[in-house]
Amino acid sequence: MKLREWLIAFLTLLFGRVWRRREERRARKRIVPAGSPERRAETVVVILLAIASLFALGFIVTYAMFGPEQLPNELLGICLGMAMAFIGAAFTVMAKKLVVTEELEEDYPEEHPEEQEKVAQIIEESGSRITRKRLLMGAGAVTAGSLGLAAVTPALSLGPIWDTGPLDESPWRRGMRLVDEDDHLYRASDVDEKTFYTAFPEGVDKEDLAAAVVMVRLDPRALHLPKGREHWAPYGIVAYSKICTHAGCAIALYRKPTFAPVEPRPALVCPCHYSTFDPATGASVIYGPAGRPLPQLPLMVDGSGYLRAGGNFSERIGPGWWNVRSQPS
Amino acid sequence: MSTDPIQDPIRFIDERTAAAPMLRKGLRYLFPDHWSFLLGEVALYCFIILIATGVYLALFFDPSTAKTVYHGAYNELRGREMSAAYKSVLDISFRYKAGLLIRQTHHWAADLFIAAMVIHLMRVFFTGAFRKPRELTWLLGLLLLFTSLLEGYLGYSLVDDLLSGMGLAIGYGVGLSIPIIGGPMTLAIFGAPFPGKDIFWGRMYIAHVFIIPLLLFALIGGHLTLVALRHHTQFRRSERQTQRKLVGVPLFPGQAPRSLALMFFVFAVLFLLGGLMQINPIWQWGPFEPYWGTNGAQPDWYLGWLIGALRLMPSFDVTISHFTLIPNPFWGGVAFPLVVLGVLATFPWIERKLTRDHSVHNLADRPRDAPNRTAFGVAFLSWVFLIFAFGAADRILVLWDIGYNTQLYIFRVAIWVVPAILFFVTRRWCRALRLADTIDELHEAAEHAAEYDATMRRGAGEARTQPVR
Predict the structure, then answer these.
(1) If you ran DSSP here, which 8-state letter would residue B468 be given?
(2) Crossing angle of the two packed helices B99-126 and B336-355, in degrees rounded to 10
(3) Cβ neighbours of residue A13 under 8 Å, at least 6 residues apart?
C-alpha cells in the first residue's frame, strides 16, 4: 500500500507537469488554425528529400571519382542543381499540402503625430541652457568639415593627384629603333601594304600605354598628311599610337579591302566602339565617337634600312582629359 | 523538471534578449500574395549564392599582375606569359576540382542578380509601389542596383583576360573623361597610366571582395528593414484590401516554405546553369596586353547599355581653347547612367509634384490605373533598351547582316522617336483598358440590378401568397 502511494507520488511528480501542460494545450485557444492531416503529402516530401540526398551524395561521389582534368563539370552541376531542385520541390509540397495557409488581416503601420511632437519637444527643450545656438552649430559644422577633410586626405597618397605628368610621358625619342612583339627589329622593307603591324620602341616596357604604335604602308601618292609631316612617312609607312583616343582600347582592326572594296579606303578601326581613323590623312576621325585623331609618330629609315622614330608623337596619346590637347610642358 | 523541445529554447532566448514579442510579430508578419512580389526575393537568393561561391573563389584567386608562364592543364595556353591573376583563374577552371562549376555559377548568379533587380524595379515602378511612404526603400534599391553594377564590373575586370582588359581600358577612358578632375582622379585610382600600377589590382580586389560587398550588405539590410517597417504594398483584389488594411499570408507557417522553395529553385537554376551552360570561357580569350584587342567583344549584359551609349555618340569633344572640358566618353559612360539614375531617383517626387497627390499609398496600382506613369515608364524603358540593343550592333550585323552604319543612323533616330510613339500608344492603351473595365463594371452592375429587381418581384409575389397569420 505504502509502496503504491510512493509510486503514484513519484509518477505524479515526474509526469504531472507534462500531463498538465498537455491538458492546458488542449484547452488553450489556437493561434494557427488546425488543418487536416495529409499522410500522402508527407510521404511525397520524404521521397523528394531522399532523392535530393541521393543527388547530394552523387556530387560527392563525382568529385571523388574523377581527377581534376576529366572532372565532368556538367555532372557536378546536375548533381548540385538537382539536389537543390528536389529540396525546392519538397518545400513546395509542404507549402501546398502540409502547412495551413491563412489569409490574415493587419493594419498598416500609422504615423505617430504625437510621438513626432514629443521627439521635437525633447530636442528643443534640451537646448535650454544654450544661448548662442548658431555659433555653436557653426563651430560644430566647421569641426566636422575639417575632420572629414582630414580623414579623406590620406586618399591623396593613392596616386599622383597633383602631378598629371605620367599622362604626358612617352618612351619615344628621336632615333629609337622599332621592334615587333618578339623584339625583332623592323626594316622598312619588312612592312607590306596588305596588312598592319604593331611596333614598340626598342628595349622599352611594352605595357606602357604610349609604347605601342600601329604601322601601315600606303601608296605614297595617296598620303595627305597634315602640314609639316611631309617627311614622317618614308616609303609611305606611317605609324600612329595604337591606343584609341576615344576610350583607350587598342586599335586592333585594319580595314584594308583585298577583294572588291566595300569601303573606299583603308582605315584603322578600334573594335570597342568602332572609332575609325584614316591613316592617309594623319589618322583623322572618319567614323565613330572618337574626338581626336590618333597621334602620329614620325618615322625615318637609317642607313641599314631599319625603321627609327623621327621624334615623339605629334600629340598626347590615349583617351581625352582636361589637358590632353595642351602643349606638353 | 520536464523539458519541452519547443518552449525551452524560446524561453532561453527570451530570458536573455526579451525578444519574444518581436519573434511573435516576426512569425506573423504578413506577405500579400502575388507572384510579382517574389522578384526581389529572387535577387536576394542570387546574392546569397554570390557570397557563397565568392568565398570559395577567393580561396584560390591571386589578385596579382606579376608575370608568370603558364604550365597548367589547358594546352592552348601552355608556355604563354600571363598575369598571376589570369593564371589563377585558369587554375580555378582546370586545376581545382569543382572550381569551374563554382566560377560559372558565380558568374551566372551575378548576371541573374542584376536581372532580377531590374525586373523587380520595373514591377515597383509600374505598380506605383515607390510612392509615399516607400520613397526611401526605392532610393536604397536604386543605390543597390548601381552599386551592384560596379561590383559586377570589378569582378569581371579582375580576371585580366583579353575581354576584361578591354573593358578595363574603357573604364580608364571613361574615368579620364570626367570634366576637369577626371585625369588626376583616374590616375590616382590606377596609380599610373593604364594598365596602372601593380597595387591597382589589390585595390580592385579589396573593393570587389570586401568594401562593396559590405556596402551591399548594408544597403540590403536597410532596404529590407524599410520594407518590413512599412509592410508590402498589395493589390486590391477584394473589398478586404484597403489603404489601411493589409491582407496576407503570415511568414510562419504559410510563407516560409514558399520562400524556401523559391530559394532552392533559384539555387537549382544557378547551379544547373553553372554546370551546363558555359559562360565567359576566359581560356578562349587569352591573356590581356594593353596593345591587344579583339572584334565582336561584348561585355556582361548589364553593361551593354553603356557600350551602346558610347558607340552611339557622334564624334566630338567639348573644348575651351586648348582645354578639353568634356571628352566624348563622358556622355555615354557617365552622363547617360547618371541621367537614368537621376530620373529614377527623383521620380517619386516628380510624380507627386505633377499629380499633386501627397497621400499615403499602400495599394499598388495596376499599370493601367496610372496611364501617364505607365506611358512614361514604357517610353523611358524603351529609350534605355534601344541604347542597350545598339551595344550589340556588331552582333546584329553578324546575325542578320544589317550594316553597322545603317544601324547607327536608324538607332540615332529610333532612340528618340520610338519612346515618343510608345508614350502615346501606351497611354491610349491604358485608357482603353480602363474604359473597358468601367464598361464591364456597368454591365455587371446592370445585371445585378436586373437580378435584384427580379428577386424583389418574386419576393413580393411570395409575400403576397403567404398566408397571413
Answers:
(1) P
(2) 30
(3) none
| pLDDT of B231 above 60 | yes
> Which of A73, A250, A322 is opposite residue B100, by nearest beta carbon?
A73
Q: In a 3-state reduction of DSSP, which class is residue A38?
A: coil
Judged by phi (left if over 0) then psi (alpha if -120 to 50, else beta), residue A239 lies in beta
Rounded to whole angstroms, the maximal C-alpha distance in chain B is 110
Q: How many residue pairs from chains A and B have C-beta atoms closer than 8 A?
A: 310
CB contact under 8 Å between A100 and B30, yes or no, is no
Q: Quick one: fold of A178-309?
A: Rieske Iron-sulfur Protein (2.102.10)
Torsion, Cα B13 B14 B16 B18, to 10 degrees, reads: 140
Q: Outline where DSSP puts E strands in chain A.
A: 104-107, 178-179, 196-201, 213-217, 237-241, 253-255, 267-269, 276-278, 284-287, 296-297, 299-301, 307-309
For residue B95, the chain A residues in CB contact (below 8 A) are 68
Question: What pTM was estimated for this model as a whole?
Answer: 0.91
Q: Which of A246, A285, A323 to mutate to test the interface with B (most CBs of B within 10 A)?
A: A246
Domain ranges of chain A: 34-100, 178-309
Q: Side chain identity at A205, as an amino acid letter?
A: D
What is the distance between the alpha carbons of residues B217 and B200, in angstroms, rounded to a whole number?
24
B10 interfaces chain A, CB cutoff of 8 Å: no
Enumerate the residues of chain B whose CB falls inside 8 A of the CB of residue A292: 317
CB contact under 8 A, A247 and B294: no
What pLDDT, in 10s, does the model give residues A139-176? 999 999 999 999 999 988 888 777 888 898 999 999 99
B 71-100 near A (Cβ less than 8 A): 73, 94-98, 100
User: Collapsing DSSP states into helix, strand and coil, what is residue B354?
Assistant: helix
State whether residue B358 sits within 8 Å of chain A by CB.
no
Which cell numbers in the block locate residue A43?
Answer: 510521404
Pairwise CA distance, residues A135 & B411, whole Å? 58
- Write the CB contacts of B50 (distance below 8 Å, at least 6 apart in sequence): B106, B109, B110, B113
Closest residue in chain B to residue A158, using alpha carbons only: B188
Residues A319 and B173 sit within 8 Å (Cβ to Cβ): yes
Note whether B252 and B27 are within 8 A (CB): yes
Tell me what pLDDT residue A41 has: 95
Taking phi over 0 as left and psi of -120 to 50 as alpha, with beta for the rest, B98 belongs to left
- Residue to mutate among B42, B264, B409, with most A CBs inside 10 A, is B264
Exposed, middle or buried: residue B232 (CB in 10 Å: 0-12, 13-18, 19+)?
buried
Cβ atoms of B193 and B148 within 8 Å: the answer is no
Q: Closest by alpha carbon to B88, among B66, B109, B107?
A: B66
Nearest CA in chain A to B194: A209
pLDDT tens by residue, B134-163: 999 999 999 999 999 999 999 999 999 999
Confidence class for position B256, pLDDT limits 50, 70, 90: very high
B-chain residues near A32 (CB < 8 A) = 253
Concatenate the DSSP letters of all residues of B269-319 into one string: HHHHHHHHS----HHHH-B--TT---TT----GGGHHHHHHHHHS-S--EE
Mean pLDDT of B343-351: 97
Find the CB nearest B187 among A108, A159, A291. A159
Average pLDDT over residues A113-123: 95
Query: Average of pLDDT values for A60-85?
Result: 91
Q: A231 in helix, strand or coil? A: coil
Grid coordinates in use for A207?
605595357
**What residues of A are in contact with residue B246 (Cβ under 8 Å)?**
105-108
For residues B274 and B81, is the Cβ–Cβ distance under 8 A? no
- Residue B291 phi, psi (nearest 5): -100, 15
Answer yes or no: do B166 and A69 touch at CB < 8 A: no
